[in-house]
Amino acid sequence: MRIATWNINSVRTRAQRAVDLLVRHDIDVLTLQETKVADDKFPRGIFEEAGYHVACHGLNQWNGVAIVSRTEPEDIRTSFPGQPGFAKAADKPQDLEARALGARIAGIDVWSLYVPNGRELTDRHYTYKLQFLYALAAYAESNAKSKLLLTGDFNIAPEDRDVWDMDVFRGKTHVSEPERAAFQRLQEAGLEEVTRRFTEEARYTYFDYKGFRFQKGEGMRIDFQLASAPLASTVTGAQVDLAERAGEKTSDHVPLIADFAVADFDSVR
């Protein structure tokens, strides 16, 4: 079973690229983040014509998550227990954003997640980010014995080697100790980062559009697939698709792909 995650940075702009990705890698499940579209405008047709089912959660032109899969997703959820909301003004209702989408696919609880960016260390969005991550860890811990997969853009570089130059990032979000501690909490909750050991040479999953970062190899590893123990034990390989990032008008993120030896999955394809 091949599962990929990709912050697509506008699904309407890159729907054909996503379909090409599905075909090129023979992907069974593709989780998307930052789709930037309300559900009624999601380009379902192009995916359905390619033989895939679509579950999506988008409220407006910001955020947005989706799951595209060969088999029909079941038990679709648009938030996880304890997920916090956010509004820029503290005195406004802190409504849930379109940052989480879960579905059961072939016995696996798959989540597409777009973790808040955090913006600045002094911003309320940073506190929101930490709250989001710790609530997610609580959910993971309560489901650690099941086949659980959290995929997506976590907006954290957990280790110094996950950025091209720590001196550039020091004192900023994505590499702060509280963020890294929150990411570690996910692992303490029973999740394993299953792609790292296969992707050390081509490790970065994000390259800023500015400064020719991709051409210089100056990136960040901030997209992950985190699996519970029963699922992590089935991982046989992983890769990042740098060729996609080299294409024209592509996302600033790289698709991250993992293979799982899931029993009897072929029978449901």
From TrEMBL:
Domain Endonuclease/exonuclease/phosphatase positions: 4-253
Cofactor binding summary note: Probably binds two magnesium or manganese ions per subunit.
Gene3D superfamilies found in the cross-reference section: Endonuclease/exonuclease/phosphatase
Matching SUPFAM superfamilies: DNase I-like
Keywords assigned by UniProt, alphabetized: Hydrolase, Magnesium, Manganese, Metal-binding
Site (Important for catalytic activity): D223
One term of GO molecular function: double-stranded DNA 3'-5' DNA exonuclease activity
PANTHER family for the chain: EXODEOXYRIBONUCLEASE III
Protein name per UniProt: Exodeoxyribonuclease III
Organism: Corynebacterium endometrii
